[in-house]
């Protein structure tokens, strides 16, 4: 997977997570504004069942699917970046991406990779050894 593909997949995942989060926030906000929740003090104690409430549940589910899909897309981008950097001669980027991903800092590492990381799938020019055959 080339770096440009990894970048596109990573950005698509970010957009999906953001869109899903916006839908979830909108659904919960509309539920509070539309008096779907019955509260006792600061606690939600019941829900008023209505078509509006069920449509907000559907909106929240769509948002949740968007967030989960975006997270899976980010995981695919991380794996693609690992495969890409494993082809490099220096394994520094590979080790950084692997360890930060394992220790839950993969988002920061992926941002760094997208901004400044090398492309392991790009052809590199290696010096050709001179021929020792007699002419």
Please give a structural write-up:
With 135 residues, the protein is mainly alpha-helical. It has helices spanning 3-33, 51-85, 92-102, 106-116, and strands at 37-40, 43-47. It has one domain (3-116). The protein is elongated, with a radius of gyration of 24 Å.
Task: For this entry, give a set of tags.
135 residues, mainly alpha, two-stranded antiparallel ribbon, 7% strand
Q: What's a quick, concise take on this entry?
A:
The chain contains 4 helices and 2 strands; from the N terminus they run αββααα. It has 135 residues and is mainly alpha-helical. It has a two-stranded antiparallel sheet with strand order 1-2.
Distinct helical segment count: 4
DSSP strand (E) fraction?
Answer: 5-15%
> What oligomeric state is this?
single chain
Query: Which stretches of 5+ consecutive residues score pLDDT under 50?
Result: none
Q: Write out the strand line-up for the largest beta sheet, numbering strands in chain order.
A: 1-2
Order of helices and strands: HEEHHH
Q: How many angstroms separate the termini? A: 43 Å
Gyration radius, in Å: 24 Å
- Average pLDDT value? 90
Q: How many distinct domains?
A: 1
Strand segment count? 2
User: What's the shape?
Assistant: elongated
Which percent range fits the helix content?
55-70%
Report the sheet with the most strands, covering strand number, pairing sense and barrel closure: 2 strands, antiparallel
């Amino acid at each position: 997977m080339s770096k440009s593909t990894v970048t596109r997949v990573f950005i698509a995942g970010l957009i999906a997570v953001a869109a899903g989060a916006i839908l979830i926030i909108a659904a919960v906000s509309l539920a509070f504004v539309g008096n779907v929740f019955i509260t006792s003090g600061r606690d939600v104690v019941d829900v008023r069942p209505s078509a509006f409430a069920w449509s907000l549940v559907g909106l929240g589910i769509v948002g949740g699917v968007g967030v989960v899909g975006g997270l899976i897309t980010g995981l695919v981008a991380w794996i693609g970046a690992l495969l890409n950097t494993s082809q490099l001669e220096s394994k520094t980027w590979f080790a950084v991406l692997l360890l930060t991903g394992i220790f839950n800092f993969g988002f920061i590492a992926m941002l760094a990779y997208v901004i400044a990381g090398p492309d392991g799938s790009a052809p590199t020019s290696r010096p050709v050894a001179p021929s020792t055959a007699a002419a």
